[in-house]
Structure formats: structure tokens, C-alpha cells
Amino acid sequence: MLKKLALYPLCLTIILAFAMPTLAKQPKKGWQRTETTIKAHGNSKIKAIHYPSKKEIKARPKQKTPLNFTVGVIDSPPIDGFVPWITVSLTDARSADDKWNAVAYNSVVGNFVNESPGSDPNKDFVVGLFDTGAGITLIDYEASRHMGITDSYLTEFTIDVGGANSSVMTTVSYPLGIFIDGTGILNDRDDPNKVKISNFNSTVGTSNVSVAFGESGDNLPVAIGAPTVVHFSTFFNNRKNITVNHRGEQHTGPEIKIRSYYQSHTLPDYPNELPLAMKPGGTEASYMPWIDVESFEFMPLIPTTVSLAGTPNQSLLFVPGVDLQHQGETAYDKQSFMIDTGAQVTVISKIIAARLGLDQNNPDFEVEIEDASGTITMTPGFNIDSLKLVTLGKELKFTNVPVVMIDIASPEGGNLDGIIGMNLFNEYNLVLHGGAFLESPYLTYIRNIPGDIAPEYGDEKVDIDDLTVFIEHWLTSENNANFDINCDINTDGIVNIEDLVIIANHWGLL
After folding, report:
1. N or C: less crowded end of the chain, CB within 10 Å?
2. How far is it, in rounded angstroms, from Cα 496 to Cα 478?
3. Rounded CA gap, 504 and 424, in Å?
4. How far apart are CA 477 and CA 412, in angstroms?
5. Mapping DSSP to helix (H, G, I), strand (E, B) and coil, where does residue 183 land?
6. Closest alpha carbon to 87 in 2, 3, 197, 208
7. How far apart are CA 178 and CA 174, in angstroms?
8. Buried b / exposed e along 238-255 (16+ C-beta atoms within 10 A)
9. CA 107, CA 192: separation in Å to the nearest integer?
10. What CA–CA distance (Å, rounded) separates 181 from 419?
11. How far is Cα 348 from Cα 356, in angstroms, rounded to an integer?
12. How far from the centroid of its chain's Cα atoms is residue 156's Cα?
């Protein structure tokens, strides 16, 4: 019989205490309802947005045109940010029973778990989330079976994950190898019947990782969490989107490259830095073992988390300080905002909302949030005047920022001040340096300035280097072999005078 363990105090990344637990799918009188599929924190997603139809408040405000570009400030970010999709493969790589730490590799080790007749490691992968907000790695039932997971990989322990009002049972696995890469390594990305991994040359990962596998019919994502991602440096190239059709779903997200700590120098070296902190503290990624006193068999009791001296406290990444303002009210130097690559939205807690004078009974918009069990709750949203992150270099400041009010449990105890979601970074290229427990984690970034097309990933200025590359692709279109999507600045399918005007308007901009 499976032994059940409620993981509410430990699996904090997937516990949501919703601000308004009343089910209400119908919009208010005079409001409109727009269906969507935006990823919120953990295993929840926004199913729809409700907003006043006769007001100027928009849940998805239009992007500013290049001619209205302002250095250092993003005005009116959208409610939804980019989704960092990656490829995920599993192997049987594990350490001895008395070794519980995850081990990082810059290549695939072990045997792929699917050994059934006709299996193909290049096809037996899934597309999942690169999720810094996940304290454990989650894999849903269908994805696990696609990769070849059978009962022999599962322990007799289960854990409950989910929201404050409902939960989903998952099973703790024996140690495995988790290997990840960007979706750029896939061939035939537009054909779900042919898509496969071209090669594993750039794939990295961790061995000896215990994960949580879902049950049949669950609503869980595939989310590769902090225990793996903090070992690596990861480049998010928002100048280039990649679309993959796989297993009946279409996934669109930025180009992603993942490198080991010692290979991070091969990624872009951006001048601006957002320091990060591991809270409440992490010295290793390890699972908590259980020993059968009769058979002396070791097996994971709790999946692998970022731990402090062997204690599974599930540490996560936090930004050092956040300043918020709204209509004269302030909440300065807030240090309990987590950065979550798995969340498309930015979240504030009830306390922060109260400090800003926000009224949950009179929101600017509302969202329907569905958790892992399928339960839907209504949550208020607001467009706040400004949000600024404490940085070294060019400031990260955002105005007219859509935020959702949710109380989310913190690994430090109590609730988070909020979550920094990826909707704030749509216009940036990022490199997340996980630290690999050898140094403090940090994020480097540049804003993608219109016309900044040289070097390949930008250098925060528009100058003769950019003009030289632009001229090389003059009057090319999408059907030409010499076409460069970076030179098609207004994205109309041709490199022409309209793109040149944009370069001219941003010439010398630093």
C-alpha cells in the first residue's frame, strides 16, 4: 500500500492560498470575459480575464511603438510574459543508496529509461517548463509514460500538492537523471509526428534526482524546478521565438541555451545585473531518504529540493529589493519577492496590496485561476503605477504594471510579498546564473532596443555595427536565403525603408 505524505509545509512552490476562494466564472454586469491560458505560479493557470468593458483599463495593454521607446522604463507591460519551454529527457543515472545529493553534468549520463521495443531516445522526450519557482521537479502521468517510466521507478510514498482548498496526489520516484536543453535542438518542430531531438551534444542535467510523478488524469505540468536549474547558467533570447508542436500541444517561447557553471562564459556577457538570493538558504540539492529497517532498502521519502545542510527546506530564488508605488502610496525595499520563470504573471500579496491602498472589492480586472485539481477561483487584479527592482547597472523599472493579488506561502515561513513574473521581461534578453552552490546566483540582462541587431544578441546601443549588418540584408524578405529576422525590425516580412527609419530614430541610443 502506498504511504501518503502531505507535503504542504515542504512543497511550498506549489501551494497557493488564493485571495478570493469564491467560484465566479461569470463576469460582472458591464464587464467582459476573455479566455486565455496564462501560467500562474506553481501548477496553476489563468483560464480567463474579466475587465470593465467601458474603461480604458486593459488586461493586455498594447505595446508601445518603437518611436515611443523610452530607455530604462517599460510602460504598460502585458499581463502575460514569455514561457521558457525546454526539452526534458530521463535516464536511470543515480548514485549509491547512501548518496542523496544531485550531481550536475554537462552531458547525458546513464541509460534512457524507455527500453520498450521500438523506443527512440530522440523521440522519447517531453517539452516542459524551466521553472525557478518550483521547489521540486514535477512530471505529469502521460509525460512520464511517454518517456518510459514504469512502476519500478516509483517508491511507495506519495505526496499531496496543490492549492489551499484542493490537492493532487503524486508519487515520489526513485533517483533519476534529469537532462534538459532548449527547444532549438529539435528537428521538424512543426510536425508533431516527426519532431525529435537532433542530438544531445548541448544537453545538460543532474543525476540522482527524486521527482514527483502525477497520477492519470491529473492537471499537473512538466516543471523542472530549482534542484536542477540552480546548477546551470541559462540564456533566454527574447529576440528569437521558437514554436514546437509536440504531443498535441503547441509551445512557443524564447530560444534557450543552458550551460554548466564552468561553461557560462560561452553565453552573452551582459553589463547589467540583478543580484539574487537563495532563501532561506541552500548548500546542496538532495532528497530526504527513508530506510526500511527490515530490508535495509533506501528510498526517497521527500523528492529532491534545494536543501540546507541536508534539511529539505526547499529554498528558492529571491530578488534583493522591490519598490512599488500607486497613487501616492508606497511599499519600498520589499525583500520577499521571489523570481519565478514558470509564472507569466506578476503577483503581490494582500499585505502589499493594502500598503498600496488597493481595494479588492474594486479591482481593475479579475482572473479565473485553475489549480491542479481543476478548482477555479476568482482573484482580483490591479494596474499599479510603478514597480522597480534593485539592480546594478541600467534600472529595471516598470510603469502601469498589471499584477494579480494572491497570498502564496514562502519557504521562509508566512507569505511571500509577491512574485516577479516573466511579463516584466518580454523586452529583455536574460542570463540566469544559478550559482551551482559555488557563488551567489544572479541575473544579467539587456533591453532589446529596436535597431540593436549587432552583435547577434545585442549590446544596448544602435550604431554603425548595426547599420552594417542591416545593409547586408537590405530588401530581403522571408523567402530569401539571406533574410535575417533581426533586420526585419517592424516584423512585416521584408527589410526595407520602414526598418531603416526605426534604426534612424534610435541611432546612438544607449
Report:
1. N
2. 12
3. 27
4. 53
5. helix
6. 197
7. 12
8. bbeebebbbeeeebebbb
9. 26
10. 25
11. 10
12. 30
All cell numbers assigned to 160: 499531496
Q: Under a CB-based contact definition with an 8 Å cutoff, are residues 416 and 55 in contact?
A: no
Bridge-partner residues for 343, per DSSP? none
Q: Are 228 and 205 in contact (CB under 8 A)?
A: yes
Q: Where are the domains of the chain?
A: 17-80+316-445, 85-307, 449-510
Helix (H, G, I), strand (E, B) or coil at 12: helix
Distances (CA, A) of 319 to 67, 237, 336, 379, 475: 31, 21, 7, 24, 44
Q: 9 CB contacts (<8 Å, ≥6 apart)?
A: none
- Whether the Cβ atoms of residue 225 and residue 42 lie closer than 8 Å to each other: no
How many secondary structure helices (H) and strands (E) does the chain include? 5, 35
The residues, ordered by sequence, that sit 6+ positions from 147 with a Cβ below 8 Å of its Cβ are 88, 89, 90, 113, 114, 124, 125, 126, 139
Q: What does each of the 510 residues of the chain score in pLDDT, given as a tens digit?
A: 444 444 433 333 333 232 333 344 688 888 989 898 888 887 788 889 998 876 544 444 443 433 344 557 889 999 999 999 999 999 999 999 989 999 999 999 999 998 777 789 999 999 999 999 999 999 999 999 999 999 999 999 998 886 545 678 899 999 999 999 999 999 999 999 899 999 999 999 999 999 999 998 777 889 999 999 999 999 999 999 999 999 999 999 999 999 999 999 999 999 999 999 999 999 999 999 998 888 788 899 999 999 987 777 789 999 999 999 999 999 999 999 999 999 999 999 999 999 999 999 999 999 999 877 778 889 999 999 999 999 999 999 999 999 999 999 999 999 999 999 999 999 999 999 999 999 999 999 999 998 999 998 888 889 999 999 999 999 999 889 899 988 999 889 999 999 999 999 999 866
The identity of residue 508, as a single letter, is: G
Does an H or E element contain 240, and which? strand 232-246
Return the C-alpha cell found at 185.
535542438
CA distances from 253 to 82, 113, 342 (A): 6, 27, 12
**β-bridge partners, 381:** 365, 404
How far apart CA 437 and CA 261 sit, in angstroms, is 10
The residue behind cell 510602460 is: 75
CB 378 within 8 A of CB 365: no
**What kind of fold does domain 449-510 have according to CATH?**
Immunoglobulin-like (2.60.40)
Cβ pair 287, 302 in contact under 8 A: yes
